[in-house]
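Deliverable D2.4 — example input (structure tokens):
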């Protein structure tokens, strides 16, 4: 199964989806991708590193992390995936993800998506909120995994100078 996203940066919400999805499949590939509508702050390499650090204490043996600069469906076919997994926080996420799945199915008829409702205590967390709060030096400890707080804070504060 593929878990695609921008992950700029990886949040506690993303980690929860990764943990739960890893139990639903033989192998989960978390792929850092490009979203044409976003200009990421963290490089693909930095995002891969932050995801690996976030999961290092989980010991999830069936999880791999990589960066991919092409179309999602190309990686999906290359890896022989059965589905992509995406977290759903709200009705608008559901609409966006349904359209995203349909668009991908136009590109590759064998495409499918598994949409996981997020945990209610994590439903307000987003990477953009992490960047906004962190760039003012605010407390991001409830939003990102403890393993990456310092690295994320450092980058966000650097972005302000
Ligand atoms: O975390 P995001 O920003 O919601 O993830 C969106 C993402 C990266 C999954 C989406 O933009 C994507 O699939 N990007 C890869 C390029 C691609 O295949 N675009 C066509 C999608 S229909």
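Example output (designed residues):
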């Amino acid at each position: 199964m593929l878990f695609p996203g921008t992950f700029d940066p990886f949040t506690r919400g993303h980690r929860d989806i990764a943990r739960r999805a890893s139990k639903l499949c033989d192998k989960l590939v978390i792929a850092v991708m490009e979203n044409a509508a976003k200009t990421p702050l963290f490089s693909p390499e930095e995002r891969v590193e932050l995801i690996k650090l976030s999961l290092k204490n989980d010991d999830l043996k069936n999880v791999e992390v990589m960066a991919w600069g092409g179309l999602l469906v190309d990686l999906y076919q290359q890896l022989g995936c059965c589905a992509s997994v995406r977290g759903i926080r709200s009705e608008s996420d559901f609409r966006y993800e349904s359209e995203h799945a349909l668009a991908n199915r136009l590109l590759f008829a064998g495409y499918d998506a598994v949409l996981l409702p997020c945990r209610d205590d994590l439903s307000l967390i987003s990477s953009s909120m992490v960047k906004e709060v962190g760039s003012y030096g605010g407390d991001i400890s409830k939003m990102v995994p403890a393993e990456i707080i310092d690295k994320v804070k450092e980058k966000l504060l650097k972005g302000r100078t």
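The CA atoms of residues 1 and 80 lie 9 Å apart.
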